[in-house]
Design a protein that fits this description.
The chain is mainly alpha-helical. The protein contains ten helices and two strands, in the order ααααααααααββ. Strand 1 and strand 2 form a beta hairpin. It starts with a helix and ends in a 20-residue tail after the last strand. The N terminus and C terminus are likely disordered.
Amino acid sequence: ISLKDKVLTCRVSAAELCAERLRIGKDDDVSVAGNVEEPPFPKMPPLVDDENRDPEAVAAQRDSLSQKASEALDAGDLETALRRLTDAIVLGRPSALLYARRAEVLLLLGRPRAAVRDCGNALEVNPDSGKAFKIRARARAHLKHWSEAHADFQEGLRIDYDESTYEESRLVAEKMKGIQAVATERRLKMENAETQRRERDVKAAQEAQKRLADQANEKQLAESRIAHQPYFQAAKRYGYMHDFMGVKRGPCKCSKCDFYVWKPRRMGG
């Protein structure tokens, strides 16, 4: 491959790479970094700046490293470009653009998680960085985090609209439609199952209530049948009755019945 071809290959942006992967349409055919362990995240700037350093000298060194990173990208050397950008970031106080540039290189190297982190750092520096939103959207699409990618695309387009990003966002939106359709179907199934469960519970409660009402009716009928019997009136009056053997019997042991269960009988024969 000629040097010219290498340069052209390198200049395929992360946007074009992500869009091409999304156009495949079949998840099984897309190489997803979410299933591959990434290398460790690149270094971050120190938490505290060195006060002994000359700010102007540091800025000049950062600009020099940034320029070398651009030259490495033009030469198709992504690893060198990543090292130069990391060196520039480690100097301290990196700009949102510097974070976003490294995130774009990381995405081209197939490291979307690291790209997402750098974009988050870029947005902490500048919450209105459209470039950071767009790169993070592509990284999240690479990880199949469709809802987050869709939200980032929309915010990036709101800040800085361009046609190519809009076309990418449409591909992610199509994925979102499929996800929403599945989620809606699942939600409807759960709602139907819950409705059926409630109907079963209501039916069971109604049947239990009917059984209690039937038992109460049976008890009332039984009481009405014997209420006017002489032995029942005597039992109510004396608190006991004689059974067929002549043994005194008190009321029902359940302590709930208002009538006496022993009906006097005569022995046959």
